[in-house]
Description:
81 residues; mainly alpha
Amino acid sequence: MPRALPLTALTVLTWSSDVLACPSCVDPRDASTNALLGSTVFLSLVPLIFLFSVAAWVLRAERAAARAEAETAAALDISAP
């Protein structure tokens, strides 16, 4: 472990300037930062909206089928099981 310490220290000291160039560490008033954040939020919400839309469609279709079955049973004067 002690052999790796000088190499680790040298690596941290030489690559520290790269940390200042981090794309998420920029001015919050910058337009590109706001655009990146907006697109990230949008692309995160799209799959959730899709899943909830499909679930709502399936639920609505199931309720309509149950309602149609109940109306048919009432018209034929039989009780649904």
